[in-house]
Design brief:
GO terms for molecular function: DNA-binding transcription factor activity; transcription cis-regulatory region binding. There is one protein chain. The protein has 13 helices and no strands. By secondary structure, the protein is mainly α. It folds into two domains: 55 residues, Arc Repressor Mutant, subunit A (Orthogonal Bundle), CATH 1.10.10; 173 residues, Tetracycline Repressor, domain 2, CATH 1.10.357. Helix 1 packs across helix 2 and helix 9 runs antiparallel to helix 11.
Length: 265
């Protein structure tokens, strides 16, 4: 086979792979994940069920690819918003495409408001992607449990690239965030998001219990809570470190190293 024909064949395979992913994504938005079957995906794509398994060995592997695709779109959107926010605060190096007026962060926000503005950007774009966040809620407990090493590695490498790039932008938007801390901060937000999504998707029994007048504390608005939680996390992450005295260091200051290591009792 000539290089040209081989390249075209690979192109066609990738196009079909994306076609299958898009069909699965559409089905998920219409049907709860447990009810989606590979047979339904095959019917939606008009492909033989066996053909699907040439591209994805399990249903979980297929939906892991769906998560990868939708996360890529979200990160792209967030990067545009963060780039504009940085530029609006005077960081010319971050200049780039401008998001629509309705979805921009607060232009010219003072430094102390930056964590809240960034939290708003992240939470608003996530709240607009309800189906994606519902998939993230089952990512670790379901989707990553029945996949090949190759599929899992492909997903993690893709996620790592997104987190590293957006982490750099996060550091530009929050100058007090230490260099190299943008990525780890995003991972903490990612874990917080998954936990909040799970709390907001209860079983029917728990949903009925939450409707009781005395259970108002457990009725959580995902969009509002994720915004508030992100703002708290970013405020703490970008705050200057506590002085040693505020950590109780003076109480140990007069002790020798041997005394500090001495067990109690």
């Amino acid at each position: 086979m000539s290089p040209t024909r081989r390249a075209r064949k690979e192109e066609q395979k990738e196009e079909r792979r994306r076609f299958i992913i898009d069909a699965a994504w559409q089905l998920f938005q219409e049907t709860p994940y447990p009810e989606v079957t590979m047979a339904q995906v095959a019917e939606r794509t008009r492909l033989a069920k066996g053909t699907l398994y040439l591209y994805f060995t399990t249903k979980e592997e297929l939906f892991l690819a769906v998560v990868d695709q939708e996360l890529a779109k979200w990160f792209h959107d967030v990067d545009i918003h963060l780039t504009h926010f940085c530029a609006s605060r005077g960081d010319a190096s971050a200049a780039g495409p401008r998001p629509s007026r309705a979805r921009r962060g607060a232009p010219g926000a003072p430094a102390e408001d930056a964590p809240a503005s960034v939290a708003s950007i992240l939470s608003t774009t996530l709240a607009a992607r309800d189906a994606m966040t519902r998939l993230l809620g089952i990512l670790h407990s379901v989707l990553e449990q029945n996949v090949s090493y190759e599929a899992a590695l492909r997903f993690k490498l893709s996620l790592l690239g997104h987190v590293e790039r957006t982490g750099v932008l996060l550091e530009r938007c929050l100058p007090s965030l230490a260099p190299g801390h943008g990525g780890p901060t995003l991972i903490r937000m990612y874990a917080l998001l998954i936990g909040m999504r799970q709390v907001c998707d209860p079983s029917d029994v728990i949903r009925d219990i939450r409707s009781r007048p005395d259970m108002g504390l457990f009725r959580i608005n995902f969009g509002e809570e994720i915004r508030a939680s992100f703002a708290l996390l970013l405020s703490g992450a970008s705050a200057p470190p506590l002085a040693p005295g505020r950590l109780g260091a003076p109480a140990l200051g007069g002790l020798s190293s041997a005394e500090r290591r001495r067990p109690e009792g």
